[in-house]
Amino acid sequence: MLPYTLIQEASDRLKKRVRRTELIHSHHFSERFGFPLLFKCENLQRTGAFKIRGALNFMTSQPREALTKGVITASAGNHAQGVAFSADLLGVQATVFMPESTPPQKVQATKEYGADVVLTGRNFDEAYAAAVQAQKETGALFVHPFDDPLVMAGQGTIGLEILDELPDVSAILVPIGGGGLIAGIATAVKETHPHVRIIGIESKAAPSMHYSLRKGKITEAPLTVTLADGIAVKRVGRNTFPIIRDLVDDVVLVEEEEIALAIVGLLERTKLLVEGAGAVTLAALLNGKAGKLPGKTVCVLSGGNIDVKTISTVVERGLVAAGRYLKLQVVLDDIPGSLAGLATEVAAVRANIFLINHERRSLDLPLGKTEVLLELETRGYEHIQEIIGHLGRRGYEVDVVK
What we know:
Layout: H1 4-14, E1 23-25, H2 27-33, E2 37-41, H3 51-60, E3 71-74, H4 78-90, E4 94-98, H5 104-112, E5 116-119, H6 124-138, E6 141-142, H7 149-165, E7 171-175, H8 180-192, E8 197-203, H9 208-215, H10 240-247, E9 250-254, H11 256-270, H12 276-286, E10 297-301, H13 308-321, E11 325-333, H14 338-348, E12 352-359, E13 369-377, H15 381-393, E14 397-400
Parallel strand pairs: 2-10, 3-4, 3-6, 4-5, 7-8, 7-10, 8-9
Antiparallel strand pairs: 1-2, 11-13, 11-14, 12-13
Helix pairs in contact: 1-7, 3-4, 3-7, 4-5, 7-8, 8-10, 11-12, 11-13
């Protein structure tokens, strides 16, 4: 198990080096859920994520001679920046292995902190294997992203901060990738507040901890593409697994559309920019996955390093999932005024045309017909049904485009 004293020591070590992030009460979501909800905003942390805590605690705990050949690690992005920042602070060289699919924003940020970046592998696990091999060849100090007591202890300082500001907290929701974050927080919290529920959240596209707990042993899980790339690992930590098994009350899975909705909700309702891995905690609440919670609840927003291209995709998916964006394919008679008539009917049900594409050349269309693709801004699922019903009653052939 992780000694509680290690977390206390990490708190003292990091006190003046990392940001004590805000614990923000959300009036909107508290009213929506019927209990006080607060966000622990590690998306506002230095380097944009909680990972700096573990990386810096690990590296500042080492004797100076251990750092002479530099440090090496593997990361999907946030740990990379934490290690790079810490190495720059300590004046040592860092080499980071990252998956080829890592968002460019995370790669560039890591380079700007002075690290050498090697892009390799399809996912974190393949990048990790390459980093381990390179460490053997170079003798650099390996900084594990999650499966090290000092790294877990650094992450556990988040739990101490939550208890300090909110000693009557009832439940804490924490994202799970390899397990270092939730292992540290669970240890920090359960030591003095054993009644607090600790709930872990994974993406259904990367359910390694859920699989492992169900099997009763560490089990490799298949990965698919996920918005929560920061927590997409095939295999959880050998050291983190028993801590989570013994201290975490539940682990639940969320879908991609639920994550997208959470990101959009945080942007609109709290003005917080949060990446997919950080938004899974709110996603679990929005869809009732976390069960009935007893009182004051904290969602850990673990990071905010999301690139602009991903934001655009996420916002669109979130709007679709919320029923606020609709694509329709409509077949019209190819005569003057048909398109204007369709636009008039759309306006009659108070839908706003975001984009329109008029296609006459498709071989699938009968002669004398034309096809229109409409992208509409809508107000929810009831409004969508109103639009489809209205157009149908007006004699239009309408198909919803997924």
